């Protein structure tokens, strides 16, 4: 399948000499939700800005649905909708006029039925005649999304889409993003909320210091880099871990009544029955056990530590 976005050898060095991006190669598939993660200053916004035609690259090529963003700018940009981080709107304009005007900027003819559908999908229909200055921060962010969707793009960029909104609205926006994907729109989002990527993304890319250090399917990433822990609550406290169990690298709690076994999710679980047998052979009795698994945030932090 031909990717909807293809990035090859992309670099950006500003006049100050700061290199924001370093030889980025990336393909994003049609209809997927792709999450781009990274700390502040990693290069996320610069990468999005280049793809959307707001910043010129120093070198490299970017194709949006087969159109070169430099040599075929108009066609490429018409395929893309961008929801920026900052809430920038004309405070005195109405919701309807703002979204309709945005469609016109792309040379699209008026299409009231489409604008109505977008506003209804974003729960903005009841606010269509309201001036933007009267809206809450969450509603203003919805208007930004409506503007980005006004010209019927095939690619939607969400740059920190839920920054500053409450948990309830965040979950509503997650549902909205999924519904967009269901219509065939490709969604690329940057986020500081790791749970957002864990909840929604099909694939995850991690960028740091201008370099794309990893691109992986979310489920595969968590399988390969995630860890599980088996936590055993002991019947009787131990003064230390018996030498016979040293191979398991067990951690004993300070009060001696809990053992923790950490194992790689890539390994077979056959080590757990062996551990339980060895505990029995050493007369160690547990009264309860539970397992925990590392989150995407744990993996993200680990990757950044390994690179630093």
Automatic annotation (TrEMBL):
CDD domains: ABC_DR_subfamily_A
All residue ranges annotated as the ABC transporter domain in the record: 5-234
Keywords: ATP-binding, Cell membrane, Membrane, Nucleotide-binding, Transport
SUPFAM superfamilies: P-loop containing nucleoside triphosphate hydrolases (SSF52540)
Region forming the signal peptide: none
Presence of the UniProt keyword Iron-sulfur in the record: no
The protein's name in its UniProt record: ABC-2 type transport system ATP-binding protein
Annotated organism of origin: Paralcaligenes ureilyticus
